[in-house]
Structure formats: C-alpha cells, structure tokens
Amino acid sequence: MGRKTYFRLGLLLALIWLFFNLFPLWWVIVTAFKPPLAVSQGATYFPFIDFKPTLQAFRDALSGVRGDFAGPIASSIIVSILSTGAAVFLGAMAAYALVRFEFRIRLLAGIAFAVIAIGGFVLLDRYTSMRVPYALGLVLAIALAVSIWLNRQRLPGPVMKNDDVTFWFVSQRMFPPIVSAFALFLLYAEMNKAGVRMLDSLPGLVLAYTAFGLPFAVWLMRDFFTNIPVEVEEAAMVDNIGRLRIFFQIVLPMSTPGLIATSMIILAFIWNEFLFALLLTSSKWQTLPILLAGQNSSRGDEWWAISVAVLISITPMIVVAIFLGRMMRSGLLTGSIK
After folding, report:
1. Residue 99: DSSP 8-state
2. What torsion do the CA atoms of 232, 236, 238, 242 make, to the nearest 10 degrees?
3. pLDDT value at position 336?
4. What is the pLDDT of residue 335?
5. pLDDT in the model for residue 338
6. Residue from 327, 328, 99, 93 nearest 223 by CA
7. What is the spatial distance between Cα 191 and Cα 133, in angstroms, rounded to a whole number?
C-alpha cells in the first residue's frame, strides 16, 4: 500500500474515533432540548427535523421543580475555586523548596513519627477520656517534634532526599480513594461530636480537596520550577533580597503559565470528584456530581432532566479545556507541563 492509502486509512480511523467521542456529547445536548414525549417515543437525533426543541427541561431545573440546582452549582464553584487556590499555593511553595533546597530525611526518624503518632493515639484513646480530635492533634505535635529532633541526629539507615520526598507526595494518589475518604469521614464525625463542624461544611470539604489536589500541584510545579534559571534568583540575592520576596515577586510571576496550567488541571479533578463529596456532605454543601447521581424520580429516569444536569456540570470544564488548549497552542505553556 502506498503512502496515500495509509493516510486515508489513518484519517478514517481518526474520524471513527472522533465520532465515538463526540456522539455521547451530542446525544446529551439533543436530549436536553427534547420534550418528554420525544424521549419516550424512541430515538430522535436532529432538532427541528425529528422533534421540536423546547427549553422546558431547563426551566424546570432552574425554577426548582427538579430540586435544588442552584445550591450544588454554587457549592461546586466555591469549593473548587478555594480548594484549587489553596492546593496550588501550598504545592508551589513545596515544589519550590524541593527544587532549591536539599532535604535529608532519615528513614528511622520517619518510622519514629509513625510509631509515636499511632501508638500514642491508641494509648490516649484507650486509657484516657480525651476526645479523638484533641488526642490526635496532641500525638501528632509530639511525634513531629520528636522526629525533627531525631532527624538531626546521626542515625543509621537510609536517608531520603528530594526525589524521594517528591515520590512520597505523588504516591499519595496511589492509594484507593475510599481508604482516605472513609478515614476522613470518621475523623470529621468525631470533630462534629467535639463541637467543630466539619461534616457537610465548607471548611471540611475544602480541606479534603486541598489535600486531594496537593500531590498534583507539587508534581507539576516542581517540573516547571526546575526550568527557571537559578541565575535570576542569585542576582536578586546579591542585592540582599530575601528568599521569601524572591519567591513571591520573581519566581511566581515568572511561573504564571505553569500556575495557570496546574490550576486548570487540579480544578478539573476537584470539579468532577464524587467520592469525597458523597461521604463528607449530606445536604447543604453537596456538589454537582452528587446532584447528577440523584437525578431520578418515582416515575423512573427522566433523561431530559438528567441531560440538563449533565450539561450544567460539564460546560465549565469544556470552557477550561478550550482555554487550556488555546494556551498550549500559542506556546504560553511551553515548559510548564510535560
């Protein structure tokens, strides 16, 4: 076969793949504008040809007939923006430290932290009447102080360096999400009993999603900071500018494209996350994925209403994807992600 034949075959396969990817989106859009009768009568594909489009499903959703849509939309927007901002800010600081400073963490010091934290918590929980949140905070503070002191000693055994710390951050996403989500639910429930409301609250959800997005922020921003010339910072230090000012006034402005790319990627993960929102919320701060999962009625699945909810949910991510794609094509993100 000649080159043209291979080209045509590849084009055909690409078009088939494009069809399978775009058809579900087209089907959702079409169904959202169908009247209920057009949905129940069978498959119809083209508005004004197979059926007369209507905005009734959108009116029902926004008027509250199908339940509270405005609440989950507002919750998703607020939680996603706050969590993304916190994760990117903390992740950028951690990534910069991993690039510009040398860390040496002794494995025995880390083991000591785990033993003191777990063993101390078990002892306090069994032999004292201290509430779980206070006991956990106390043992973590003691374990941290002891492990820092031990890390300064000449202990035998392996020493973990920057690459190992980075891998530790990324490895947090290797665990099944249900493990951390269920543990966080139990902790939040105990905090509620102690008078600190965390379940079905904005701080609780933001804290969980910040921890959820932090490993991605560290991983992506570390790669970007590596490509920033260290000579720029050295020149600033010659002028007696502190490291903190260098980070905020020089490094972060230079890394703006990387910050934008990282923010969009983490925002997409948090916007679509389902498990944490399912376990940690009940009514007030439920997000859009929970709303989508509950779109049924006593009459069965009303696909026109479900399609409206899906459109409301995916439209912001489509806008983010288009914006990110334009930035990548224009070269603004060169070197920010690999």
Report:
1. H
2. -130
3. 44
4. 47
5. 42
6. 99
7. 6
